[in-house]
Amino acid sequence: MTRGIVTLCxxxxxxxxxxxxxxxxxxxxxxxxxxxVFEHDWxxxxxNNAELRKDGLDKLHCEKxxxxxxxxxxxxxxxxxxxxxxxxxYAIDHDKIVFWLNPPEFESGGIGRSYKEMIIDAKPxxxx
Length: 128
What we know:
With 128 residues, this protein is of the alpha/beta class. It is built from 5 helices and 5 strands, in the order E-H-E-H-H-E-H-E-E-H. The radius of gyration is 15 Å and the shape is globular.
């Protein structure tokens, strides 16, 4: 039984966090969508036609968010870069639920939802 579809968002330089979250959420019954390219330095080299390539990947990631019920922002050490900030704003504008690796405190006084909420008491279906 699926718990929903979630897209992982964050800097691709945090590949280990993507792998860990993907594993935990998959085992908890979530369908997980994530970036398919993790070579951060390569994505930013002009000789690789970086701007066009990165722009295309950013648009593709927004399409993944469109397919999702929620996003998980993998803000390791509180870091949220420009692309991740745009993805977060896109998700909010499209009424997606937002979970955080490290829940931030907002100026409004609220605190973001922890992704641990997504995996608490989640157990694979038991076979009879």
